Amino acid sequence: MSASSEEYRDRTGAGPAGGEGEGGGPNAGREGGEGEGGGPIVGREDDGGADGSVRRPRRRRAAAWLSLLVLAGTAAAIGWLLLGGAPRASDGRIAVGEPAPAIEAALPGTGTRLRLADFRGEPVLVHFWATWCEPCKRELPRIDLAAAKLAERPQGSGAVLVVNVGDSRATMTEFAEASGIALPLASDAAGESAGAFRVRALPASFIIGPDGRIERIVQGEFASADEVLDALDAAR
User: Fold this and answer.
1) Based on the number of CB atoms within 10 Å of its own CB, is 206 exposed (0-12), middle (13-18) or buried (19 or more)?
2) Domain range for residue 168?
3) How does DSSP assign 195-232, residue by residue?
4) How far is CA 26 from CA 34, 57, 184, in A?
5) Which of 162, 193, 201, 220 is positioned for an S-S bond with 103, CB 3.0–4.6 A?
6) How many angstroms separate the CA atoms of 177 and 140, rounded?
7) How many structural domains is the chain composed of?
8) Are 205 and 123 within 8 A, CB to CB?
9) Do 175 and 217 belong to one domain?
């Protein structure tokens, strides 16, 4: 090599980084060899280098998607647990198969409170009504008759929990006496128990199984006392 060419290299710094290419020209700073057209390859994403450096962004994206899927699954599981693992109706109402709310309501004038949990182990009809509701007033004597028939059966055959919604004690008592209703009528003056069952219209009835889960929801009237008894028998 001549002195002039050595002097040129000293001035420009154009020394070979990986040896000379096939065409004899200097390869200034090539990192992956020459491409097919003879030019240097500078980190193209469609080339998979031997060191895997080009494929790393794809791996990172895959890992990110996997993390998002894990987070979504975790959030769904937490939501399911917060809801008690129970099914919910799409419109926000309580659903069949869901655990019945742990309600209690007072028996006016007695100092006693009726608790749904006290009937655990047998089927229960939880019935919501009011004196301003005409279908309720037609239906209540049928439920009263069903309760009387249940009293003649062996213990554990079923129970009836009738809850008045919003009426005063005087109004409820006056109606019960005029209609000859004998079964205990609990009072939910503030609507707390009805709210727990997410009642939207009256009359509303819920058949609770011995395990405390809702077996059937009846929005409207039972046609007869026997229909009430059949619903309780089906939940046993």
Assistant:
1) buried
2) 104-234
3) HHTT--SSSEEEEE-TTSBEEEEEES--S-HHHHHHHH
4) 12, 32, 103
5) 193
6) 12
7) 3
8) no
9) yes
CA–centroid distance for 107 within its chain? 34
Same domain, 37 and 48: no
The 3-state DSSP class for residue 32 equals: coil
pLDDT score, position 89: 53
Band of pLDDT at residue 93, cut at 50, 70 and 90? confident
In a domain, 97, yes or no: no
Task: For the chain, report the end-to-end CA distance as a whole number of angstroms.
Answer: 104
More confident residue, 37 or 155: 155
Inter-axis angle of helices 134-151 and 169-179, to 10 degrees?
Answer: 70
Task: Please give the Cα distance from 31 to 148 (Å, whole number).
Answer: 94
Please answer whether residues 114 and 188 qualify as being in contact, where contact means their C-beta atoms are separated by less than 8 angstroms.
Answer: no
With 0.90 as the threshold, say if the pTM is over it: no
How far is it, in rounded angstroms, from Cα 172 to Cα 174?
A: 5
User: Are 16 and 55 found together in one domain?
Assistant: no
Q: Is the residue at 195 inside a domain?
A: yes
